[in-house]
Amino acid sequence: MFRVARGEADDDVAFSIKPTSDGGYVIAGGYEGEEAGAFVIKLDEGGKQQWKRTFGGGDDKHDGAFSILSTPDGGYVFAGLTESYARGDDVDGWVVKLDTQGEEEWTKTYKGDIRCKAYSIQLTRDGNYILAGTKTTFNQERDIFVVKLDAQGKEQWSRTYGGKDDDGARCLQPTDGGGYIVAGRTESYGEGKGDIWVIKLAEEEDKSSNLANKTGAALVGTEQPKNETSVQHSLNALVGLDEIRGYWVDNVYQGEILVVEGVAVNKSSKSAKHILLRGTLHSHDGKIVKSQSYFCGNILSRQQLKEMTSNQIIEVLISPKEKDKIGLDIAPTGRVPFMIVFQNLATLMDTLREFSVEVASVKFD
Question: What is the pTM of this model?
Answer without folding.
Answer: 0.60
